[in-house]
């Protein structure tokens, strides 16, 4: 694989850190600015909403520009946002820094996916996209503990200085290692990029992304309550269990990318069916600690294993006008997160217990399976499902030490 993919992954790592790191810093940030916990929470909510807006808005604004130059500019915006967060004298400026950094999130991963796919042979696109998203999965694992450690040792502002430094290194890496990847689309017209959304396959692919991720995050959003109140784990154990979930994300992302190159729709169907089954199993056995550990790992693996394939499918469906829909799919991931969290919260508020969001997640993921089957049929291809044995064989190959 081209070494430039590592530079893209490093950029993804820095952006992922910015998204997740604030969770461990909220109490200190709230104390510094003298705001309530709810107001501090907008540093998370505002970021997520800005990602959804920027995924389409920013991508549309730069669709006709040279892609490498755009990636460099987006990282410059990311660095500026984190520097503003690091020096912000007021809560309002801190929030502005978060929004500024978030605007580049969707566009970076969307355009970065197009660039990563263009750097390799057609049969390796899924693996290339997976490598770029590896940065995000590692950030998911390390984000909160990294931020908490730096914040406790040197103050929360030091965390954002460190992320800014990571952004600078990633920017230099892209400048040096990533080849020129041409301009937006072959047509170089924004209206052609928007016209791609008239494709049935693009719409169905985006819907699968929303539902597939909505199902996983519907279950994951309230996972701490499940682990402590239902499974009976000590509160101090939760961070380590979340690391286990993150390891599942990391492994699933890499294997899912390789599998998608072999059989795109079959891999997505298999992973979504498996995720539905794992969520149902998790809901039924959440009272068992060993079963919970297995479920948590598999939920991360099957859930994030869909990411490279989902990103590749929406890009393939758009043809030459893939830049904007690629960014929109990043927004769809975040929309799915919000959908799952909202639906899960409703069931808890209704008194159905802490395992109810897991059941909701299983139901939402089952809907993703239905939409994926429809997408497969309507694309005039035979609706086969890649056997789990094939994925298991690929997983064994990927995880075996190279001789």
UniProtKB/TrEMBL annotation:
SUPFAM superfamilies: MFS general substrate transporter (SSF103473). Coiled coil: none annotated. It comes from Lysinibacter cavernae. Its main location: membrane. It comes from the Bacteria. GO terms for molecular function: transmembrane transporter activity. It is a multi-pass membrane protein. The chain crosses the membrane at residues 42-63, 70-88, 100-120, 127-146, 158-181, 202-225, 237-256, 268-286, 292-310, 331-352, 358-375. This is DHA1 family inner membrane transport protein. It is found in: Cell membrane.
């Amino acid at each position: 694989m081209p070494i430039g993919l590592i530079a893209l992954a490093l950029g993804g790592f820095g952006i992922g850190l910015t998204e997740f790191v604030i969770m461990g810093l909220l109490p200190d940030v709230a104390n510094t600015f003298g705001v309530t916990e709810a107001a501090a929470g907008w540093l998370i909510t505002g970021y997520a909403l800005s990602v959804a807006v920027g995924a389409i808005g920013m991508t549309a604004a730069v669709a006709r520009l040279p892609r490498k130059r755009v990636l460099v500019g987006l990282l410059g915006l990311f660095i500026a946002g984190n520097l503003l967060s690091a020096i912000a004298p007021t809560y309002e400026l801190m929030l502005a820094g978060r929004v500024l950094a978030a605007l580049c999130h969707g566009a970076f991963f969307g355009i970065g996916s197009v660039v990563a796919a263009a750097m390799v042979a057609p049969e390796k696109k899924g693996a290339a996209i997976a490598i770029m998203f590896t940065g995000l999965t590692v950030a998911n694992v390390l984000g909160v503990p990294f931020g908490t450690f730096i914040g406790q040792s040197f103050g929360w502002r030091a965390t954002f200085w460190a992320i800014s430094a990571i952004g600078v290194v990633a920017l230099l890496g892209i400048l040096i290692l990533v080849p020129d990847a041409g301009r937006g689309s072959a047509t170089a017209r924004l209206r052609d990029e928007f016209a791609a959304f008239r494709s049935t396959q693009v719409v169905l692919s985006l819907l699968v992304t929303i539902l597939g991720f909505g199902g996983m995050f519907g279950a994951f959003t309230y996972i701490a309550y499940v682990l402590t109140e239902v499974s009976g784990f000590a509160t101090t154990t939760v961070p380590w269990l979340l690391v286990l979930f993150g390891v599942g994300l990391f492994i699933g992302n890499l294997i899912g990318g390789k599998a998608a190159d072999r059989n795109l729709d079959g891999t997505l169907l298999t992973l979504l069916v498996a995720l539905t089954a794992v969520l149902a199993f998790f809901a039924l056995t959440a009272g068992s600690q060993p079963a919970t550990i297995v479920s948590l790992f598999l939920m991360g693996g099957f859930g994030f294993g869909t990411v490279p394939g989902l990103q590749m499918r929406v890009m393939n469906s758009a043809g030459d006008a893939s830049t904007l829909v690629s960014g929109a799919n990043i927004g769809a991931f975040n929309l799915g997160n919000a959908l799952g969290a909202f639906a899960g919260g409703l069931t808890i508020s209704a008194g159905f217990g802490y395992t109810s969001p897991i059941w909701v997640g299983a139901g939402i993921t089952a809907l993703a399976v239905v939409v994926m089957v429809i997408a497969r049929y309507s694309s005039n291809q035979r609706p086969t499902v890649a056997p789990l044995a094939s994925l298991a064989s690929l997983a064994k190959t990927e995880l075996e030490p190279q001789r």
